[in-house]
């Protein structure tokens, strides 16, 4: 039997996507690529594919707490990644869970829309996340449409959304992949007034699971002990490579290739 040193464990609370493009499968693959171990807690079941989402069901509170606490009581969790929660009650459940572990770095990916545009939670879920979860997060990673929902600024710029949201969270990474500029501008804001823009080449096409990939990679880098700004850069670089190498597995968006072809060889 081979004995390896333990990889950092990252607790993931996210929805299940049967297409495998987003949700917990994206979390698992992205964390494996960082050299971490993903411990997935299913928050919701969805009916979706690479085209869009048509339905979802949020799991019962007791099931969420039981899944997560089984991991927390057994493994030395190094970080937490949040994805789809789907309901205001689920937000309250996760707040209760994480309030008992305030030392853990937490990356909050406020999943409110599928890549195809379908809803994965009413806007009230976003507001509950803003008020209750963002204060517990190390960093939140909304794209600009999600940041506008969270900030209640339908036409707000990234700067305007950040100004409002930094009242709730310490660090905010607003990704710019939903625009049409030649370059993508991903903006990191901090409550102390510092900010940094990470620029990358825009790739053609649209992608299913890019936000999950980024947030999970970032959680993995933090679990490994990397500093925040460096972790953001590492996660953005990794995510861009997964999009560059993405595959069209269905009739809709491309799916990021998060693991190399020879990963299991």
From TrEMBL:
<dbReference type="InterPro" id="IPR004399">
    <property type="entry name" value="HMP/HMP-P_kinase_dom"/>
</dbReference>
<dbReference type="Pfam" id="PF08543">
    <property type="entry name" value="Phos_pyr_kin"/>
</dbReference>
<protein>
    <recommendedName>
        <fullName>hydroxymethylpyrimidine kinase</fullName>
        <ecNumber>2.7.1.49</ecNumber>
    </recommendedName>
</protein>
<dbReference type="InterPro" id="IPR029056">
    <property type="entry name" value="Ribokinase-like"/>
</dbReference>
<dbReference type="GO" id="GO:0009228">
    <property type="term" value="P:thiamine biosynthetic process"/>
</dbReference>
<dbReference type="InterPro" id="IPR013749">
    <property type="entry name" value="PM/HMP-P_kinase-1"/>
</dbReference>
<keyword id="KW-0808">Transferase</keyword>
<dbReference type="GO" id="GO:0009229">
    <property type="term" value="P:thiamine diphosphate biosynthetic process"/>
</dbReference>
<dbReference type="GO" id="GO:0008902">
    <property type="term" value="F:hydroxymethylpyrimidine kinase activity"/>
</dbReference>
<comment type="pathway">
    <text>Cofactor biosynthesis; thiamine diphosphate biosynthesis.</text>
</comment>
<dbReference type="GO" id="GO:0008972">
    <property type="term" value="F:phosphomethylpyrimidine kinase activity"/>
</dbReference>
<keyword id="KW-0418">Kinase</keyword>
<dbReference type="GO" id="GO:0005829">
    <property type="term" value="C:cytosol"/>
</dbReference>
<feature type="domain" description="Pyridoxamine kinase/Phosphomethylpyrimidine kinase">
    <location>
        <begin position="17"/>
        <end position="253"/>
    </location>
</feature>
